Each structure stands twice: as structure tokens, then as C-alpha cells.
Amino acid sequence: MATQRTGDETGGRRELRANPFGNYSLLEAQQPARGAGAGTNGTAAPARESPFANYSFQEAQQNGQALPFPPPSPTASADAGSLGADKLQIPDDLANAYTQLADNASADGSTHSLYASEPGQHHHQQQQQQQQQQFQPQHFQHSGAISIEQYAIRTLYEEFRDRAAAKIDTIVELRLDREPNLAKHLDHGVDPTFDRTLEKLGMLARRRPRVIIELLLVWRKTTIDAADDDPLDNSNNPAIGSAPLPDLARHHHMQAAALSRAHYIVRERKSLVSVYILCRALSAVVSQLDASHLDGDLGDRLEELVFGQVKQVNPANLRRSQNRREIQDLYAQLIGRISGIRFSSMSDRFIAELERIPMVSSGSDERIVELLHNMRFIRLRVYPIDALEESSAFLLSCAKFYSRTSGSLRLKHAWATLLTELLMPIAAVVDVEVNLPELVQAIDIIYAKAMKMASKVRHVTVAFPLAAATLCISRREVFHQRWLSLLEYCIQRLKDKQFRRVSMDAILRMLWVYLFRYPEASNVVLRRIDSLSRIFFPATKLHAWPKT
Q1: Is 16 helix (H, G, I), strand (E, B) or coil?
Q2: CA–CA separation, 450 vs 317, rounded Å?
Q3: b/e string for 192-227 if b means 16 or more Cβ within 10 A?
Q4: How far is CA 127 from CA 121, 137, 138, 266, in A?
Q5: Tens of pLDDT along the chain (548 residues)?
Q6: What are the backbone angles phi and psi of residue 17, rounded to the nearest 5°?
């Protein structure tokens, strides 16, 4: 539990005061069972479209900004196809450099295939080798001098690419009949060396954010292209699927089908691993940036890219694969980091998407629940005043959506959980900001709906924490007027072991605000404490009650 320091105005004496809002997690307060819809049955997941198939790059070199590659020769070609439906091209520096790399790639005789070579495939492997090597900046030869900054970016990018490739190869080599746990191999803390590489990418991004971000996106696309160009992909072979076949032909057909299935699993696994690494790398980069780095076109494109993955996700795929769920959580964390820099534009995207989803159509509840799940990392701010006004406007919009929710139990709980996690962090630091009209209106709307839900047993686990959070952000007179009614509700639920933890959690938070933020006269406070002490420490029992 976090602590808060307070000082005596005259003597300067300071003491530690327990703050019940530090590091709040509603999931820990409720102790939910894990596993509902999060596991996997061991079968291969369905084919997934590349998350960056629709992303496109604009010109990367503006006002003399150089990419980490030296300028190519005047004769180098700039033919590099578009990355998406919007037909924007790869930046000229990257396109020219990659084209010259492709011309020089044939000098290397080695090849790297997903499978062992088959007779008659030498020409195809040479083509694959050129496609895989055209995005390798260390082969780029240039006689001119480069700056220290360009050298540092090139060296660090090569280090990142090589370490990421090693991790992809390690996971691809695992047995194909089971879905690997990507977090076990790629999560923060598993490989400190790789973590430091990502941190260094973030530090370099302070000087060249556009270069670093676009290099990461190019790396992701080339990784998927290399998997798609595997020479043993027989998915388009007309012989497969034809029937009837003789016994020998049927045997070869079964072998080809099994090989094609293995290729599909490897390609899908590479795609998931590369997305996982990309999310971690972008999070490390964005965490080092501020508003000046993500202003204008770069911030808009990054927002559109990340939010597009959240908006278009298929909830059914997340239920079938734990790895997909973890990747979606990484996207949500990345959105939270971006919202810390560009709160207004990112929050507006969520509100606009919620307005577009019909409330009564079939399947809309599941889409809204998933969208709310990805909003939980957005952090409201109470200072400066501009940030407080933006946060209050966003909270008011969410409160209106929440007040109109009816019928769906899952949707009500999703809204209550989200609002609790949005309000708890600012409940620890809010002061005179509670008097802002928009914030007052939002709190009143949320409190009315939460207390209505708290009267029903099936909503207690989410309604009590939300009602307590709204009271902790209320004005002094509103808090003293309402907190005793919620306190009575919580005391009544202490006898039920199922609701004991959330009830005690709500009581302690309100009691902290009552004692340290909005205290009454000392004799009234002592009377309140005495009555609560008799409930928690009954004289007729040898142990404290309620017993958790």
C-alpha cells in the first residue's frame, strides 16, 4: 500500500500516512478466477491477417533529417512497393538503400530457409535469399562519411534485428503441436540483454523518433514477408485437393498437405512473435518521448496504427489463444503510453468508436466489452488545468455511456470495472479539482448508477469499489452526505465471505478520506471510529472480525 507524507505547518514535523489508493488493482481486490476464455486447446489458431498490412509510410526525410543509412548513389533505383491500401511509399532513403542492397545481395551464397533444401529448389532459394537480404543494412556499402548519430542508429538497429531474429528462431523450433507461451520467452525481465537493447532504442528515439519508429515497422513487415516467401508453401499447388488419387499419389498428397500445415503454423508463429516484439519495442520508444516528438503526422499515424489493431480485433480469436490475448494487452499498454502524451486525440478515438457501435445489435456487447478492456490503461490527469479539463470531458462521456447501459450483465460489469480503474489513481491526489463542473457532473452520474447496482447482489463485486471511488473524488459536503449509506451497505455484506474483501476495501478507502481529507470535529470522529471498532473487534470474540 502506497504512503503519503504530510507535514506540520508550524514545526515542520512529517509523518507517514497510509494511502489506500496506491497501486490499485480491482482484479486483486476481487480475486477472480483465471482462465475463462483465456486458454488454448492446443490446436493451431486460424490464419491471421498481418497487423500492419494496411500501414503505409510517408516521406521520412524532412528538413534534412537523415535515416541511419548513408545516402545511396544517384543511380540507385527507388522502386519499393507500397505497404498498404493507401498507396503511400516507403521513404526514399530506405527505398534507395534497400534496392541497392538487393542488387548486391547475390554475392552471398548462403541461404536461410525454414526447412531443409529439396532437389530442384536452388533457383527459388536464390530468389528468397535476395528478398531476405535486401533489408539488411549492414551489407550497404558507401564510401562517404556518416555522422556519429547515424552510426549509432545503424549499429543499434542491427543489434535489435539480430537478437529479435534469434528469439524468433528459438520459438519457431519448438514443437508445432503445442502453442508456446510467448511471455515465457519474450516478456520483460526474461532476457535483460534484450531489455537493455529496447531501452537504448528508446533513448535514441529522443533525437530521431521518426527514424526509429519507421525502422521498427519496416522490420516487422520484412519479417512477415520472409515467412510468406517460404519455398515449400504448397497452399497454391493445384495438385493438392484434387481427387480421386492413386495410392502413391495420395501418399505424396498427404505428405504435401502435412508440410503445408507445418508451414502455416510456422508462419503464424513468426507473425505472433514479431508483433509481440514490436509492441514491446514501441512501448520502450514511446515511454521516452514527449508531446514535441509525437506532434503532427507522426503521432497521428502511430495512433491510427495502434488503435486500428484494437478496433478490428476479433474477440473469438482472443478466447482461443492466450498469446493473442497477451498481445492485445500489449497494445492496450501501448495505447496507455501514447495517451499520456496525446490524451485528447487518443480518448476521442475511443469515444467516436463507442458512438459508432450500435447498442442493441447482435454481437455489439462483445465488441464494446473488448474496447473497454483496452481503455483501462488510459490515465486521467488533474494537473495542469488543461489536462484536468480534457480528463473531465472524457470521464463525462464515459459516464453518459455507463448510465445508458441496461440489460447486459457483462457490459455493466465491464463499464464499472473500467471506471473504477480510471478513478482510483486520481482519488489519491485530487484536491480542489473536485469542484470543476464537468467533473462534478460526471461523478454524480456514475455514483447514481453505481448505488443502483450496489443494491443487487449480482453487482456487488464491481459496484462497491466504483461507488467508493466516486465518493473519494466528491466534494466535502457531498462526501459527508453520502458515505454513511454506502458504509451501511458494506457492513451488511461483511457477513458474506464472497463480498467481504470488496466490502472491507471500500470501507477502508472511505475511512481514509474521512480521516485525512474531509475530517469532522474530533468528538464526531472519535464516535465514528469507536462504532466501527466494535464491529471489527467485537468484545465477545477472541479474534478480529471480519476474518478474511
Answers
A1: strand
A2: 32
A3: eebeebbebbbebbeebbbbbbbbbbbbbbbbbebb
A4: 10, 18, 20, 20
A5: 444 444 444 444 444 455 556 555 544 545 444 444 444 444 444 444 433 333 333 343 344 444 333 333 333 333 333 223 233 333 444 444 433 433 443 334 333 332 233 333 344 444 444 444 443 443 333 445 678 888 999 999 999 999 999 999 999 999 888 899 999 999 999 999 999 999 999 999 999 999 999 999 999 998 887 666 554 344 444 333 444 445 656 656 566 676 777 888 889 999 999 999 999 999 999 999 999 998 889 999 999 999 999 988 888 889 999 999 999 999 999 999 999 999 999 999 999 999 998 766 667 888 999 999 999 999 999 989 999 999 999 999 999 999 999 888 999 999 999 999 999 999 989 988 899 999 999 999 999 999 999 999 999 999 999 999 999 999 999 999 999 999 999 999 988 989 999 999 999 999 999 999 999 999 999 999 999 888 888 777 766 655 55
A6: -125, 130
Q: What does the DSSP assignment read for 39-90?
A: ---SSPPPP---TTTT--------TT---SSPPPPTT-------SSTT-PPP
Packing angle, helices 148-172 and 209-228, rounded to 10: 30
For residues 153 and 68, the answer to whether their CB atoms sit within 8 Å is yes
SS3 17: strand
pTM score, two decimals? 0.71
Q: What torsion do the CA atoms of 213, 215, 217, 218 make, to the nearest 10 degrees?
A: 160
Rounded to 5°, angle at Cα 96 from 93 and 101? 120
Q: Determine which helix (DSSP H) or strand (DSSP E) holds 452, and give its type and residue range.
A: helix 437-454
| Tally of helices (H runs) and strands (E runs) in the chain | 20, 2
* Distance between CA atoms of residues 444 and 474, nearest Å: 8
DSSP string, 93-138: HHHHHHHHHHHHGGG------SS---TT-HHHHHHHHHHHHTT-GG
483-520: burial string, b at 16+ Cβ within 10 Å, e else: beebbebbbebbeeeebbbbbbbbbebbbbbbeeebee
506 touches 494 (CB < 8 A): no
Q: What is the 3-state secondary structure (H, E, C) of 470-486?
A: HHHCCCHHHHHHHHHHH
Helices (H), 173-296: 182-186, 192-205, 209-228, 247-286
DSSP category for residue 3: E
CA atoms within 13 A on the CB side of 363: 3
Q: What are phi and psi of 245, to 5 degrees?
A: -125, 150
C-alpha cell at 9: 505547518
How many angstroms separate the CA atoms of 135 and 210, rounded? 18
> Residue 41 is placed in which grid cell?
486447446
C-alpha cell of residue 513: 478520506
C-alpha cell at 522: 474530533
For residue 32, give the DSSP letter. Answer: P
